[in-house]
Write a structure and sequence with these properties.
The protein is of the alpha+beta class and about 230 residues long. It has one domain (about 5-230): Aminopeptidase (3-Layer(aba) Sandwich), CATH 3.40.630. The chain is about 30% helix and about 25% strand. The chain is built from 6 helices and 11 strands. Strands 1, 2, 3, 4, 5, 6, 7, 8, 9, 10 and 11 form an 11-stranded mixed β-sheet that branches. The longest helix is centred in the middle third of the chain and has 19 residues, at about 130-150. It is globular, with a radius of gyration of 17 Å. The two termini are about 15 Å apart.
């Protein structure tokens, strides 16, 4: 199998530079998707979204091109009684909590589609490396969550137009569509993946041909590099 043209490298020692790159990618891609505008970059909802990036016990995963350019990111936020999507889906989350389910949310997910298309020479996003990188990041989030042994359900708030991708991975809808303030009131549906009964176990495997870098938030002011997870 041909080695992927994109890799995931170790988290750098320059914390401010790496965090700035992640926030820039998230904002740029969310603006392109209509989830935030330039004028809204510093509004309360946007600041609340960014806060989750640095709040323990969040984990942040980063995909880099071979030249060191950030290509994608995703975060996993274990439940501490509050999750980002609880801003509108708290009742749905509480239904699972009352059943004794331990939750986590995959969030802050973005892939630099234009960069990936440029580096692969593809004429369309379908032919670019972006879908491959997106799947690798989702598999990373699932793999890490399964390894913790204390997470039953991995949840995510998804724009309805993307639910097909997550359904193929094994996620299911567990609530009605609502307007999502953390995405400029775009519609979102709550989806979840049962980590104890994975419908497609292969999606919990380490991504092939990728090196996974993990950041561990220890405070809102500092993030430490954590263990390095290599593809098997």
């Amino acid at each position: 199998m041909e080695r992927s043209k994109e890799q995931i490298r170790d988290f750098g020692t320059d914390f401010e530079t790496d965090i700035a790159a992640i926030e820039d990618l998230l904002t740029r891609e969310y603006q392109g998707s209509g989830y935030v505008t330039e004028e809204e970059r510093e509004d309360p909802a946007e600041m609340q979204r960014k806060r989750w990036l640095l709040t323990p016990p969040a984990r942040v995963f980063m995909a880099y091109m071979r030249n060191g350019t950030l290509a994608g990111t995703v975060s996993v936020i274990p439940d501490t009684g509050q999750l980002p999507m609880g801003i509108v889906f708290e009742n749905e989350l509480n239904d699972m909590r009352t059943q004794g389910m331990r939750l986590a949310q995959a969030a802050q997910f973005a892939v630099d589609r234009k960069l990936m298309r440029k580096n692969t020479g593809a004429r369309s996003l379908k032919k670019s490396a972006a879908p491959r990188t997106a799947l690798a990041l989702v598999k990373t989030a699932i793999h890490w969550s399964v390894e913790q042994n204390d997470i039953d359900m991995l949840c995510i708030a998804v724009n309805p137009r993307h639910k097909g991708f997550y359904t193929r991975v094994g996620f299911e809808i567990f609530g009605a569509e609502k307007l999502y303030p953390l995405a400029r009131n775009n519609p979102a549906v709550p989806m979840r993946l049962n980590l104890k009964q994975l419908p497609n176990p292969r999606f919990a495997e380490k991504p092939e041909h990728f090196i996974i870098a993990e950041m561990r938030a220890v405070s809102e002011q500092h993030v430490l590099p954590a263990k390095r997870l290599r593809a098997g």
